[in-house]
Amino acid sequence: MSKEFKPFLDRVTETLAKQNREICLFSEALSDSTDSSVVLCLLSECPQGKGLGSELCFVFNKRSKLVRQSGDLCFPGGGIVHHIDSIAAKFLGLPFFPLGRWPYWQEWRTVRRVESVRLSILLATGLRESLEEMRLNPFRTEFLGPMPPQPLQSFQKFIYPMVVWIRNQKRFFPNREVEKVVSVPVKDFLRPENYVRYRMRFEAYPGSDDEVIQDFPGFLHEDEEGPEVLWGLTYRIVMMILEMLFDFSPPDMYYLECVDGLRDENYYNSVSKKQ
User: Fold this and answer.
1) Nearest partner of 89 among 113, 114, 125, 130, judged by Cα
2) What is the pLDDT, as a whole number, of residue 269?
3) How far is it, in rounded angstroms, from Cα 169 to Cα 194?
4) Predicted TM-score (pTM) of this structure
5) CA 164 to CA 59: how far, in whole Å?
6) What is the pLDDT of residues 191-244, one digit of tens each?
7) Percent of the chain clearing pLDDT 90 (strictly above)
8) 161 to each of 23, 37, 108, how far by Cα in Å?
9) How confident is the model at residue 273 (pLDDT cuts 50, 70, 90)?
10) Distance CA 101, CA 123 (A)
């Protein structure tokens, strides 16, 4: 773990543990992988520029045109594959593995034994998916803690976020599902001027001539490759982290600049099946 960011990461770990101590995070619904997915909320140390040192960043994937919700920024993750993830989960609590290094693992195994099994499966799923999507090395990660599950109404499922720190991995190799990996400084999320009202224009449903227009809260990130808008569930998870750690709330979207987005009829359907 980076010495520069260790105090901050310790605070993240302790804050998550305190918030999770009184609630049940993982239900029996995990037995049905169609209703449950995992995402790794990735934090990392990113260079600011030549001679400027490094800064704390969120790390996202941008979905390729081959998957559902193409063009969106998201955290890596996916559904549970029980015959694989249940086996991998048994190793995660060993010394030098992500759960084995997590300071609250022994407490969970003693006090929350059933939930600890579910936690290990969820983290195994997130690490496997991240390895597939962006070649994130699971041995270069620090597990900081779980967050409460988030409903994803458009797909009628729950998403289980896991907060993870990336240690000493500077390059990623996206697979066909990911267009590119995008790092965004945390400090940029604390600037109200970077927030927008994201106006989505969905092409007409079959049998209708009317375009569907809906506004969403969003965050605008711009770099040398152009603008990206973070919105939806991933935006919601990031806002939860910012509120928890910095007591930060985004400005009311109805007073913000409007940025247009367009999603065609293929937005909720992948072009090709996941390999």
Assistant:
1) 125
2) 63
3) 27
4) 0.90
5) 10
6) 999 999 999 887 655 555 667 788 999 999 998 888 999 999 999 999 999 999
7) 67
8) 15, 9, 17
9) very low
10) 13
Domains and CATH numbers, the chain: 6-263 (3.90.79.10)
Q: Could you tell me which of 206, 163, 150 has the C-alpha nearest to residue 14?
A: 163
Contacts of 218 (CB under 8 A, 6+ apart): 195, 196, 197, 198, 229, 230, 231, 235, 253, 259
Helix ranges, the chain (H): 6-20, 82-92, 98-101, 105-111, 113-134, 186-189, 232-246
* Confidence tier at 186 by pLDDT (50, 70, 90): very high
CA distance to 67, 225, 250, per residue, from 266 (Å) = 9, 25, 31
pLDDT at 230: 96
- Cα separation, 62 vs 4, whole angstroms: 28
Length of the chain in residues, anyone?
A: 275
Q: Are 145 and 102 in contact (CB under 8 A)?
A: yes
**What is the enclosing helix (H) or strand (E) of 192?**
none
Angle formed at CA 63 by CA 61 and CA 67, multiple of 5 degrees: 140
Residue 144 near residue 10 (C-beta atoms within 8 A): no
| Neighbouring-strand partners of residue 177 | none
DSSP state of 194: G
Strands (E), the chain: 36-47, 54-63, 73-74, 77-79, 141-146, 150-152, 157-166, 178-185, 195-202, 212-223, 226-231, 258-263
The closest alpha carbon to 148, from 230, 242, 27, belongs to: 27
Cα separation, 57 vs 165, in Å, equals 10
